[in-house]
């Protein structure tokens, strides 16, 4: 019996990396979420939900985004939440964990020098907290298992 | 046809200038997604089919049609080349030249330099000789690092 997985990433490079990880979700019941309309269709990712984007500089957008993420997590009842970033992914991990899910953060491979800001926020809510760079993992205390490259 | 892409965030005139010279010398069609272009952009590159931005569908179509794609060392470009199985040549942006906020593209280029189908031009003048060669497509034979990451995720999910 497959697990209910919520796989969430912001549009652009974060989403592309999440798509590279899809073989890990095979046999499970995956709901995808991203911030850019049209993106899931381009990658054949279904079912998918679009959530409003947010960052630390736009407070009202962050409220909208958070509300949408609460509804999403409530409805999907994920057993596992995975994100490659950015901030909406951290929020989804936090709510997912509060609702009993196990959580995975894979920091974007673009962060070759240090853990991203979102990644540092995710540390407290991620059960599996990974960097895609060995030296960044060693510096930050994150795990390392490989990279999408 | 050669597709050139510099991503959506920052211009990269060193790459576009180099491709202008190559297009002028070889006569091969070069479509260049130049990103935001200020001032000197218009008319500075008469041998390029110049597009500041490309819609996703158009970008995918050009990617598939291209003989080879030339790009900055952005993650999006590398993953797109693997997804579409096209040969990719990357020129990393350099912090010292004001091309990015740090040197993470050099780190990325070093990490992917040995992957099949990904060819690194460490300097702009290496682009011409690389493009004159027959290049193998990216994405063939997979990646041990990616397989290891996926195995770890799978193990965690199924635990």
Report on this structure:
The complex is a heterodimer of chains A (149) and B (159). Chain A is α/β, with parallel strands linked by helices and 149 residues long. Chain A has one domain: Glycogen Phosphorylase B (Rossmann fold, 3-Layer(aba) Sandwich), CATH 3.40.50.2000. A 7-stranded parallel sheet of chain A has the order 3-2-1-4-5-6-7, sandwiched between helices. Chain A is globular. The model of chain A has no long low-confidence stretch (mean pLDDT 94). Chain A is built from 6 helices and 7 strands, in the order βαβαβαβαβαβαβ. Chain B has helices at 13-26, 56-65, 75-84, 104-112, 127-131, 144-158, and strands at 2-5, 30-33, 49-51, 68-71, 88-90, 118-120. By secondary structure, chain B is α/β, with parallel strands linked by helices. Chain B has a single domain, classed as Rossmann fold, CATH 3.40.50. Chain B has a 6-stranded parallel sheet with strand order 3-2-1-4-5-6, sandwiched between helices.
């Amino acid at each position: 019996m497959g697990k209910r997985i919520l796989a969430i990433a912001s549009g652009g490079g974060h989403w592309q990396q999440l798509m590279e990880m899809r073989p890990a979700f095979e046999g499970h019941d995956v709901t995808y979420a991203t911030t850019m309309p049209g993106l899931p269709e381009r990658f054949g990712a279904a079912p998918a939900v679009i959530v409003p984007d947010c960052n630390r500089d736009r407070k009202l957008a962050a409220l909208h985004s958070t509300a949408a993420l609460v509804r999403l997590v409530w409805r999907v009842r994920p057993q596992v939440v995975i994100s490659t970033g950015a901030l909406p992914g951290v929020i989804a991990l936090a709510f997912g964990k509060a609702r009993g899910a196990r959580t995975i953060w894979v920091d974007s491979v673009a962060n070759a020098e240090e853990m991203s800001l979102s990644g540092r926020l995710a540390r407290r809510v991620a059960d599996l907290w990974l960097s895609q760079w060995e030296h960044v993992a060693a510096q930050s205390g994150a795990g390392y298992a490989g990279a999408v490259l | 046809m050669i597709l050139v892409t510099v991503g959506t965030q920052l211009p990269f005139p060193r790459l576009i200038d180099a491709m202008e010279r190559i297009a002028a010398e070889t006569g091969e069609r070069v479509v260049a997604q130049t990103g935001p272009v200020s001032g000197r952009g218009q008319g500075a590159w008469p041998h390029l089919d110049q597009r500041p931005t490309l819609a996703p569908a158009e970008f995918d179509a050009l990617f598939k049609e291209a003989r080879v794609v030339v790009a900055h060392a952005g993650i999006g470009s590398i993953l797109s080349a693997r997804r579409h199985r096209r040969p990719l040549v990357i020129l990393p942006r350099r912090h010292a030249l004001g091309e990015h906020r740090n040197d993470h593209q050099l780190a990325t280029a070093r990490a992917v330099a040995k992957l099949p189908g990904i060819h690194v031009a460490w300097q702009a003048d290496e682009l011409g000789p690389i493009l004159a060669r027959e290049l193998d497509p990216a994405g063939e034979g997979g990646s041990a690092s990616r397989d290891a990451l996926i195995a770890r995720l799978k193990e965690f999910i199924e635990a």
